[in-house]
Structures are given as structure tokens and as C-alpha cells.
């Protein structure tokens, strides 16, 4: 099996679309089709089902995905492991993060890392929480930064870098805007906005609602992102539960009120997660150390 065929297969398996995979790989669509056909011929197995104008993986294709991930990751590790005797990091490093962390924490960390290790080509990918963990597991990104606790998986390692306060975000003319802090009972019957199911902050809001029982707020609308939640709260649609770093700017500009939440659900962790075997590549442990140092400095400055 040729590596380029495996890379193409993985791109098609991820996107389930030949056109998007071709654009991602900078190939002509005909080239992608030819490579997949060549791989299917070599394996004597059909990898994709193309019926009903929808592309899906066959059982054989689903089995190949995991092997392709492992083989491509090993190739990447082998290349970087023999770079030079000094073991100076080089090659590519892909970092994934949630929207808020990509906007408010990762840029400074990546800038510091690039100053220290200029030979490394860094890519930043933004995604949803579940999507990011899947990228890590498959070796598509090297390190992920998310809120909350990482899933338990023997292939993954994770650590909490710091915590961030949870804030009740409200329109500036809302009654909660005058509070110094909010306790659960203050939220009884309040109209709340929430991100969709599966998002880390939706889980935290659901936990808060379950904890408060009859004093819980009511979710009246779902919004796609934390940035959109803040904008909708500013427009008067309702309140939201967000990390302090996501609302510090809008609150300072007077666009929303941000009031600290107290009680058992009052903080969230910022967690770093990576594939254990990726530690063999010099660029990964050096990034982990850089991120730890950056967050320690932020805590000391707070």
C-alpha cells in the first residue's frame, strides 16, 4: 500500500466527500478517485458505498480507517525521531482547540512556541469538543485544549492546566446585572440560552439545572457557539453560562453583564490532551512544556 493512497483514503473517510477531500489534499478529484480505486483493487475489497448519492464507509473501509491512522502516525513519528542528533524539534505540529481557547489563549502560547522552536511548522484547528478528541485519537492533531474533563482512554494522556470561573452572562438591563455574585436560587425560572447537546458547556449547564432542581433556569433557545451566545445575551434574548475568558472583553465594553456564579458548579477546567505515543516526537513534549509554563505565568499574574 502506498502512503499517498492511505492519506487520500483517510481524507475521504473523514469528509465522506470526494470533492472536499480533493480540495483538502490539493488534488484533482479524478486523482482522488483513481487512488481510491487503486487501493480497493490492491486490497480486493470495496471501501466505500456510493449508493443513493451518499458516500459511506463499508465494513472493510471502517476497519481500514484505524490501521491507516496508525500507519500514517508511525510514518510521521519516524520522520521526526531521526531529525538530527541534537533532537531539535522540527516538522509539523497541529494543535486543536475550542473556539474560545483558539481566540483567547492559544495564540499567545503558539507565538511563544514559535519563538523557541522556529523549525516547527504549527497549524491551529478549531472544532467542537467531541470532534477534537476524535482528531487526537486518530492522530490528526497532536495536542488539544478543551474545557472540562477529557474522556478516559488508554491511548490518551491529559492534564488540567488551570481553572476558569463560570459567569452568568445577562443583558445589561437585566435584574441579575446588578448582583455582585449569583447563587443557584437566583436563577429560578430565568430564560437561558445554551449551546447544543454534546458541547462541554451544555453539559455544565445541564449539571447546574439538575443540581438546582426547582430553582433551575429554563433553556429557551439553542445557539451554535459561545461567541453567538454572548451576542444573543447582549441583544436581550436571555442569559447564558460561559467561562470568564469568553466574556471578559464584551463585559469590559459594557455589551453584557457578567456575574460570577457561586456554588458547586462555579468553575471549569482547561485541559490539555494528547496521544501518548506522540510524546516520541520532540515537537510534542516541547509544546506541552511551553503550554504549562504559559498557564503558570497567567495564574501568577492573576
Instruction: Quote the average pLDDT.
Output: 88
N-to-C SSE series? HHHEEHEHHEHEEEHEHEHEEH
Cα-atom radius of gyration: 22 Å
Helix content: 40-55%
Q: Can you count the beta strands?
A: 11
Please mark out the parts with pLDDT under 50 across 5 or more consecutive residues, or reply none. none
Strand content: 15-25%
How is the topology of this model organized?
Elements: H1 3-15, H2 18-25, H3 29-43, E1 48-49, E2 56-57, H4 59-81, E3 91-97, H5 99-104, H6 106-116, E4 120-126, H7 129-137, E5 143-147, E6 156-170, E7 191-194, H8 200-212, E8 218-222, H9 226-234, E9 240-243, H10 244-252, E10 257-260, E11 267-275, H11 283-301
Parallel strand pairs: 3-4, 3-5, 7-8
Antiparallel strand pairs: 1-2, 5-11, 6-9, 6-10, 6-11
Helix pairs in contact: 1-2, 1-3, 1-4, 2-3, 6-11
Give the structure's gist in a few sentences.
With 302 residues, the chain is of the alpha/beta class. The chain contains 11 helices and 11 strands.
Structure description:
It is a single chain. With 302 residues, the protein is an alpha/beta fold. 45% of the residues lie in helices and 21% in strands. The strands form 3 sheets. Strands 3, 4, 5, 6, 9, 10 and 11 form a 7-stranded mixed beta sheet that branches. A two-stranded antiparallel ribbon has the order 1-2. Strands 7-8 form a two-stranded parallel sheet. Strand 1 and strand 2 (56-57) form a beta hairpin. The longest helix is centred in the N-terminal third of the chain and has 23 residues, at 59-81. The mean pLDDT is 88.
Amino acid at each position: 500500500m502506498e502512503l499517498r493512497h492511505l492519506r487520500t483514503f483517510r481524507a475521504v473517510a473523514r469528509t465522506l466527500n470526494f470533492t472536499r477531500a480533493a480540495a483538502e489534499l490539493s488534488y484533482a478529484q479524478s486523482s482522488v478517485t483513481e487512488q481510491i480505486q487503486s487501493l480497493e483493487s490492491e486490497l480486493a475489497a470495496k471501501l466505500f458505498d456510493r449508493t443513493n448519492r451518499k458516500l459511506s464507509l463499508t465494513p472493510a473501509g471502517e476497519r481500514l480507517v484505524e490501521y491507516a491512522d496508525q500507519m500514517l502516525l508511525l510514518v510521521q513519528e519516524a520522520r521526526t525521531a531521526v531529525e538530527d542528533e541534537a533532537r531539535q524539534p522540527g516538522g509539523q505540529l497541529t494543535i486543536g482547540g475550542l473556539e474560545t481557547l483558539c481566540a483567547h489563549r492559544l495564540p499567545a502560547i503558539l507565538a511563544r512556541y514559535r519563538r523557541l522552536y522556529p523549525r516547527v511548522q504549527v497549524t491551529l484547528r478549531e472544532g467542537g469538543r467531541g470532534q477534537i478528541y476524535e482528531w487526537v485519537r486518530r492522530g490528526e492533531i497532536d495536542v488539544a485544549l478543551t474545557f472540562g474533563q477529557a474522556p478516559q482512554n488508554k491511548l490518551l494522556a491529559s492534564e488540567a492546566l488551570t481553572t476558569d470561573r463560570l459567569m452568568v452572562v445577562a443583558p445589561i438591563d437585566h435584574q441579575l446585572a446588578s448582583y455582585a455574585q449569583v447563587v443557584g436560587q437566583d436563577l429560578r425560572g430565568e430564560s437561558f440560552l445554551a449551546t447544543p447537546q454534546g458541547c462541554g458547556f451544555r453539559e455544565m449547564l445541564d449539571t447546574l439545572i439538575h443540581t438546582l432542581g426547582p430553582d433551575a433556569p429554563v433553556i429557551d433557545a439553542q445557539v451554535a457557539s459561545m461567541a453567538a451566545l454572548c451576542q444573543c445575551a447582549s441583544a436581550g434574548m436571555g442569559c447564558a453560562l460561559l467561562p470568564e475568558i469568553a466574556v471578559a472583553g464584551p463585559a469590559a465594553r459594557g455589551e453584557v453583564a457578567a456575574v460570577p456564579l457561586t456554588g458547586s458548579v462555579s468553575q471549569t477546567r482547561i485541559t490539555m490532551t494528547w496521544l501518548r505515543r506522540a510524546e516520541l516526537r520532540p515537537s510534542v513534549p516541547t509544546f506541552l512544556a511551553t503550554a504549562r509554563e504559559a498557564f503558570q505565568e497567567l495564574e501568577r499574574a492573576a
